Amino acid sequence: MVIKHSVEGYDAFNKTIKEVETTAEVILVLFSGSKIGDGESWCPDCVSAEPVVNNVLETLDDETTFLYVGVGDRSTWKDPNCVFRKDERLRLTSVPTLVRWGKPHRLQEEECCNPDLIRLLLEED
User: Fold this and answer.
1) Is the separation of the CB atoms in 34 and 41 below 8 Å?
2) I want to staple 106 with a disulfide (CB 3.0 to 4.6 A). Which of 60, 80, 99, 125 is the partner?
3) In the chain, where the domains are located
4) pLDDT tens for residues 72-84?
């Protein structure tokens, strides 16, 4: 069963990741452009990736923790000093970015729309 969390912003991300990394065996984090008034992200690639990621999550048997993180509005994300870009643990260069927390590999942009790549990321040791 997948345990899902959704947070907005850097501080909420840090708080939640600290909580879940002490107990979760597998943590999958999707960094996405924040959702706007219509409930969808301002980022078209993020809008495309989210349902694909969610569909893969629905097929998982094992205990996985999933964390959706809104990185801010377009201007916040595009700022070269955006904290998500500067954090040494993250070093994000694009959204969407999907990472298996604690592992080096990641999926970026259109790669997040490939269910086979998402499954490979989850199998990584």
Assistant:
1) yes
2) 99
3) 2-123
4) 999 999 999 999 9
Contact by Cβ (8 Å): 98, 32:
no
Which residue do the tokens 């990641």 mark? 106
Q: Which contacts qualify for 105-109: CB closer than 8 Å, 24 or more apart?
A: 109/45
pLDDT at 95 over 90: yes
Q: Which residues contact 121 (CB under 8 A, 6 or more apart)?
A: 28, 98, 99, 100, 103, 105, 106, 107
Q: Looking at the domain that runs over 2-123, which CATH code has it been given? A: 3.40.30.10
pLDDT tens, residue by residue, 34-91: 999 889 999 999 999 999 999 999 998 778 999 999 999 999 999 999 999 999 999 9
Evaluate if pTM is beyond 0.90: yes
Q: What share of the chain is helix, strand, coil (3-state, %, to 5)?
A: 40, 25, 35
Catalytic annotation, residues: 43, 46
Bridge partner residues of 100 (DSSP): 28
Radius of gyration of the chain (CA): 13
